[in-house]
Amino acid sequence: MEAQASSRYVRQSPRKIRIVMDEVRGKNVGDALNYLHFSPKKGSEVIEKTLRSAVSNLLQKADDANIDPDGLTVSAAFVNGGPHLKRFRAASMGRISRLNKPTSHVTVVVSDE
Known about the structure:
- It is built from 3 helices and 5 strands.
- The protein has helices at about 15-25, 30-40, 45-60, and strands at about 1-10, 75-80, 85-90, 95-100, 105-110.
């Protein structure tokens, strides 16, 4: 059985979150949560929250079945780019320079197989 959770419009670039996501993909949920909790990266907080939500969704989905939370694995985890926030900053000689502030969509899929 599978369940997924997604966090949308996360205010960090997808490239930075993918670095942490590659460490988590395919691991046991307990090992992944341990890694994410003690990781100093900013993206690990978002991934940890999304992973906990996916586990909760799976347990809620199969409330009548006996599912061991320790036996779950992260079957799929990916990060897609979201819309960019376009901002402007003052530049030299009266000009403006454009700032692109990227966002991300984080998706985690958990399965018991």
